[in-house]
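Memo to structure team: turn this sequence into structure tokens by end of day. - J.P.
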Amino acid sequence: MQGRIRGRDPRRAHLINGLVYPVPRAISLGVHLTRTAAGELWIGPDARYIESKTDYESDRRDPVDFYDEAARLCPSLRAEDLRLGLSGIRPKRYGPGQAPLDFLIEQQPDDPRIIHLVGIESPGLTAAPAIGRMVSEMAGKILGRAFKL
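Reply from structure team:
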């Protein structure tokens, strides 16, 4: 997973009032627009598979590469509004050409007090309340008491 582009000019943040998403792609939601609480307009992310877990800065795209996709969502956006933003790695449970895997929630076999939640992507946020209840029940069994959500 690589980079976000940010429109750092607060005067351009008025162009959107919330989240603007395109139709999802195979490995990501694609370039989308987010107005932050700080009043910035963020554009991105750029998702692609990378080989190294430690070098995600050497092959970053130019902010202008995002312009065409972003302008489809917000025609008032200008190429000069774009600035390079944050980058990071989002681990995936599958690689290029493999079928997507569902997220995984399980206790660690050698220490059941450890509960792993792996690969939770969209629709993970939609499922967050159900995931919370499930993990709460698992923790309650481990600790011998119920948790009220």
